Automatic annotation (TrEMBL):
InterPro entries reported in the protein's UniProt record: Flavin_Rdtase-like_dom, Split_barrel_FMN-bd
Protein name in the entry: NADH-FMN oxidoreductase RutF, flavin reductase (DIM6/NTAB) family
GO MF terms, alphabetically ordered: FMN binding; oxidoreductase activity, acting on the CH-NH group of donors, NAD or NADP as acceptor
SUPFAM superfamilies assigned: FMN-binding split barrel (SSF50475)
Native species: Thalassovita taeanensis
Top-level taxon of the source organism: Bacteria
Length: 201
């Protein structure tokens, strides 16, 4: 089939997210100017540069108590920092719990039953049990087409990795099995790898 998004797809559910898969999950922690911590998963997330290391995530919705945006974006605008926590298979239920639409004053760490740890280079909490966390300073917020779509870019200023996820100097994803977002309500978990050498290696 072929469809133009402006005309609709005619299917029971939008297939766009199912086509662009798998997507890494940026479990974004932030802290508002009022000191309240927030935690929410974003599947429009990725690394975008090596030197300096940079990441981005996109916020594509709104909450009635946040004036046209979400808690994460509102907090980051206030403080200029955020942390990306990597989601392991073991943390899947806590990640899902943190995706609930809650009032802006509610701490999702507590709601999801997660232990916090303080970041080292920024004033922000991180998920203590995450296999890795990336502390970030905001570099820019880019408005995208659409009323509530924004891309948030940050420079990574600190990197946490759990020692049990390192093997022979390699960050081994099979040790924690990262979760990836698919379409609809579907997820995938990475349990095995394959290696391909580049032609110019």
């Amino acid at each position: 089939m072929f469809y133009e998004p402006k005309d609709g797809h005619g299917l029971p559910h939008n297939p766009f997210n199912a086509i662009v898969t798998p997507r890494p999950i940026g479990w974004i922690s932030s802290r508002g100017a009022d000191g309240v911590d927030n935690l929410a998963p974003y599947s429009f997330f990725n690394a975008v540069a090596y030197v300096p290391p940079q990441v981005m995530f996109a916020s594509t919705g709104t909450k009635p108590d946040r004036n046209g945006t979400k808690d994460s974006l509102s907090n980051i605008r206030e403080t200029g920092v955020f942390c990306v926590n990597i989601v392991s298979y073991a943390l899947r239920d806590a990640m899902n719990a943190s995706s609930a639409t809650l009032p802006s004053g509610v701490d999702e760490f507590a709601h999801a039953g997660l232990e916090k740890a303080e970041c080292a280079t920024i004033a922000c909490a991180r998920v203590a049990a995450a296999p890795a966390s990336l502390e970030c300073r905001l570099t820019q917020i880019l408005p995208l087409e659409g009323e509530t779509n924004f891309a948030v870019f940050g420079e990574v200023t600190g990197v946490h990795m759990r020692d049990d996820c390192l093997r022979d100097g390699i960050f081994d994803v099979t040790r924690f099995q990262p979760l990836a977002r698919l379409g609809y309500r579907d997820y995938a978990v990475i349990t095995q790898l394959m290696t391909l050498s580049r032609p110019d290696d």
